[in-house]
Design goal:
six-stranded antiparallel β-sheet; 19% strand; elongated
Length: 553
């Protein structure tokens, strides 16, 4: 709840410090005394739009600080912690408004964005007025309020979890379908390529080996004749026989002159050995040069096929075997992906069925809660002089989403036989305020901020209706903190705390400032008497005020 509100240099307020307690507190005062200024300042601390004209004239800046004492598990504390804000102890919202229009926002003295301040403020305070088009009258929050009234957190979370699972599976399936479709589009090509490469059966290094063999065979055609001529020279009887004869003659004479003949004999032996090596080499070369012309044709055809495949698939010849394996793996994966798609489709069907079941359960619970809420609100209407009116919670089908399959709206029928319609369109300003109060009483502290501010919702009503509104505000204050700006003495008499707002002259009459006074019991009676009597407070008004206070104790 709000425990302290401090305002500095905002419009007519120079310095104001309010300490607030539990229950219901009212703010009263003459028209124009500054009640709206106080609420505007409070709204500024909750993240409302800033305006340089709010700063008191002649001052560079104004400031508003609101201190809240909230439960440890309150959403505002959790939201603050999510922003790395130290949220232990009180939660302090502060807004500095510069005269040039700039503003600065702080939570527990840590700078934050205005959006963060506004998000926190929405969880802490609701401000309702006769012409308020936010808070309870927003269709966007009607479903949330029905869920809170029916305590539907568990089935709602089940629906959200089921919806998240459906969305995740849909995303996964879509991604898988896109990938599989891309593979399917080239599957025929991959199958053809794999069949072609498998039939070709290229081996690693085969192109180089075939190229070398082809070059050897083509070169052999040109050198074979010369190899044969050399073989005839080396392998013929002439040189060998002549050398053998000379060697024999010298060998016979070697004993007569060994020093002279010995080296020559050795040289001739080496020459004969070299001729033997040359003959064998030439014979091997001729054997190597021998080939079948059809083999050369087969080699050339094989090389042409390998190189054509390499050009076709834009890889090297040595990469063709790996490409065939890659295509085989892709085609095998396609079969597995097709099976995975079937599995995903089945899982999605199951997830959708689970979502539909959870959403139907939630929808049934919502309709039951809506009926109970209608009964609770309608029970509050007769004392508020809306006995001929009817409150209706419309629960209609909508597209499935994370919050289920229901669109929820608050409708009213102000008179029997008239066409029901949305609360904001059908109810007048005074009716809207009373419907809103009845709704808040029915909701009590379910789905409500811990502090509720009612800004002159009793305008235009009096007597029994004002008394009924006061009774309901007091009842509501037993569960949440209620601050009410009011002109109705019947409402003011039911408050636990009472502030009077008035204007006082300052600076020897050169300025006017708004002052807020905490009223003691005697002063309360005098203020309520003023509200009853007007400008001149009579003894009769004081007596009537006393009776009002006595009746509400």
């Amino acid at each position: 709840m709000l425990v302290q509100l401090s305002i500095r240099d905002i419009v007519l307020i120079d310095r104001l410090d309010l300490d607030l307690g539990r229950g219901m507190t009212v703010l009263t005062g003459e028209t124009g005394a500054g009640k709206s200024i106080l609420l505007d300042a409070f709204s500024l601390a909750l993240g409302a739009r800033g305006d340089g004209t709010l700063v008191r004239q002649g001052f560079p800046q104004g400031q508003v600080t609101a201190v809240f004492d909230i439960d440890a598990d309150h959403p505002a504390r959790q939201a603050a912690q999510a922003q790395d804000i130290d949220a232990d102890g009180d939660l302090i919202l502060r807004r500095v408004q510069m005269a040039d229009g700039r503003t600065r926002a702080f939570v527990n003295d840590q700078p934050v964005s205005v959006q963060t301040l506004k998000a926190l403020g929405k969880t802490l305070v609701e401000i309702h007025g006769q012409h308020d088009d936010r808070a309870l009258v927003e269709p966007a929050v009607h479903r949330q309020l029905v869920d809170a009234f029916g305590a539907l957190t568990a089935p709602l979370e089940a629906v959200r979890a089921a919806h998240a699972k459906v969305r995740a599976l849909e995303t996964e399936r879509k991604s898988e379908e896109t990938r599989v479709a891309a593979i399917r589009a080239e599957a025929d090509f991959l199958r053809h390529a794999y069949a072609e490469l498998t039939k070709l059966a290229v081996e690693a290094g085969e192109e180089v080996s075939l190229t070398n063999r082809r070059q050897t065979m083509m070169a052999a055609e040109k050198v074979v004749a010369d190899l044969r001529d050399a073989q005839e020279v080396v392998g013929g009887d002439g040189p060998v026989s002549a050398l053998n004869g000379a060697l024999r003659r010298l060998d016979r004479r070697q004993a007569q002159a060994p020093a002279l003949i010995g080296p020559s004999v050795q040289a001739l032996d080496a020459a004969l050995a070299a001729l033997d090596v040359a003959r064998e080499t030439l014979e091997q070369a001729l054997r190597d040069a021998e080939f079948d012309p059809r083999e050369l044709e087969r080699i050339e055809e094989r090389l042409f096929a390998i190189r054509a495949a390499a050009r076709k698939y834009a890889v090297t010849a040595d990469a063709l075997p790996a490409l065939a394996e890659s295509h085989a793996a892709t085609l095998e994966k396609l079969d597995a992906d097709e099976a995975e798609l079937v599995t995903l489709a089945g899982a999605l069907v199951q997830a959708e069925a689970a979502y539909n079941k959870a959403a139907a359960t939630l929808s049934a619970a919502r309709k039951k809660a809506a009926t109970a809420l209608d009964a609770a609100v309608n029970a509050e209407l007769p004392p508020l002089k809306l006995e001929r009116a009817r409150f209706i919670t419309q629960v209609e089908p909508e597209a499935p989403g994370p919050d289920g399959i229901d669109a929820v709206g608050f409708w009213v029928e102000t008179n029997p036989g008239t066409r029901p319609g949305p609360l904001m369109k059908i109810a007048s300003g005074g009716e809207l305020a009373r419907f809103m109060l009845a709704l808040k009483v029915a909701l009590a502290n379910k789905g409500s901020a811990p502090t509720l501010v009612f800004d002159e919702i009793d305008t235009g009503v009096g007597g029994a209706v004002a008394d009924a509104m006061g009774a309901r505000l007091a009842r509501l204050a037993s569960r949440v903190q209620v601050l009410a700006v009011t002109h109705a003495p019947q409402v003011a008499a039911r408050a636990a705390g009472h502030f009077r707002i008035a204007k006082d002259a300052t600076d020897e009459g050169r300025r006017v400032a708004t002052r807020v006074t905490t009223l003691a019991p005697e002063a309360r009676q005098e203020e309520i008497a003023r509200m009853l009597a007007g400008a001149t407070v009579t003894d009769e008004a004081r007596a009537a005020a006393g009776r009002l206070l006595a009746e509400t104790e």
